[in-house]
Amino acid sequence: MFTTHHFRKKLLLVGRMAEIMLILAIMICGISVACSSDSCSGVECLLPHDYDRRSLPKQEKPLEITISIFVESFGDVDVAKMEFETFGYISQTWTDSRLAKLNTTPIVLEGSDTHLIWLPDLYCINCKVSNLENGINSKQSMASIDANGTVHLSFMAVTVASCMMDLHQFPFDLQQCSLQFSSYAYNSSKIVYRWGRKPIVQRKLLDQFFVTGEQAMTHIGKYFLGNFTISGASFKFERRVGFYILQLYIPTTMLVCLSWTMFCLNHNHAGERITIGVTLFLTMIFINGQANVSLPKVSYIKSIDIFIVVSLAEILLIIIESIIVTKLIVKKEKEMMSKRSRKKSTLEPNANSFQNEERAIACDTAYKGAEFSGKIETERKIPEEGQNIAEWMPIIVKEIDASKAPKANGKVSKCSRNGMDKSTGAKPLLSKWSSHRYIEKSSLALFPVSYIAFSIWYWQTYFQNRKMMN
Description:
Helices cover 40% and strands 24% of the residues. By secondary structure, it is of the alpha+beta class. Strands 1, 2, 3, 5, 6, 7, 9 and 10 form an eight-stranded mixed sheet that branches. A four-stranded antiparallel sheet has the order 4-8-12-11, with no helix packed on it. Strands 13-14 form a two-stranded antiparallel sheet. Strand 11 and strand 12 form a beta hairpin. Helix 4 (242-259) packs parallel to helix 6 and helix 6 runs antiparallel to helix 9.
């Protein structure tokens, strides 16, 4: 009995001691958690207890922030959307007197730790897309605090900004695009931005442009909430014209030169000439569409438009010239056929008409340098209906009589320059065809000379304009 009672007593005592130990353990854990919540990290412990990262550093004058930009590379310079993309780093420097004498050596904050201090609310005015807000708190950011309270903030920035481009001189154009930075909440009475140094560009060679210059500028922008300081970084882009010379100017010039070969075809091949001209004209329209497919739909005339329009006009005028010559030939053929049809109804031709036409043939032959001797006899033929006039025109000359072509000192004396006999007024049959030959010869000289002169003026003018813009 005694043993059992004694054992129960000991067991009860052990249970109470266990409860006490558990309560003590819970109390110790609670105290440790409370102590740990009240503790601070190394940087936070260095900051003053009354430091408020949401308030602007106290200054008698507007807080001056020095800004710098380092462009690692440019992305796509999109002319159609009028925007350009940049990859680089932005640094800002200012003085916060509340952070002075925190430590004898600079304090470095990385990534999300930078939000422990006050930071400027920098934003890009003309940016369509940017990471300025998220870039400060990302892993690609850092801030260093000097012993005198000077803060240096740097972070990686990716921006897509708008750029109003002037395409009057395209593709010999120079474009100037900029990034405009300002404070969103603080006007110029509280924050003033200044450029620390000229913007730096690491890679200046792009697929379509050269970066030929960088410039920093600062001005005051007027808004409803007051005047704000705006700091801009301007970049000058010079277009590389090699692609357009190879893909547009050379093919266009070759097509125009190919259209000149239409003059080498016989005027009887009117269908082939017009077919070649229309094919070249449609090809030029296709090239014009390809040249403008990557450009915005602007309402003014560009340099490339002038070249293509003049080239189109050159080919179109050659087609029109071929049509005019063909019409003249057809008209002459109809007139000759009608004239011979009326003569066919006559029973017998007049003897004087025979002599006049014989004299005209002799004059026409003599004008071309022929020698006259012997007797001329002609066999007259009337063209049949539907017969080509060219098959009828040569009159069979069996013998040539010098008496039918008067001579003076061994040369024909009574023939005019066009082969007409001045004594009788007879006109050679071939004179009907002189008008279209004159047009053909004039066009063969006029079209190439005019296009070559235009090309010289075009290239000289636009290269001089480009030098002036540089």
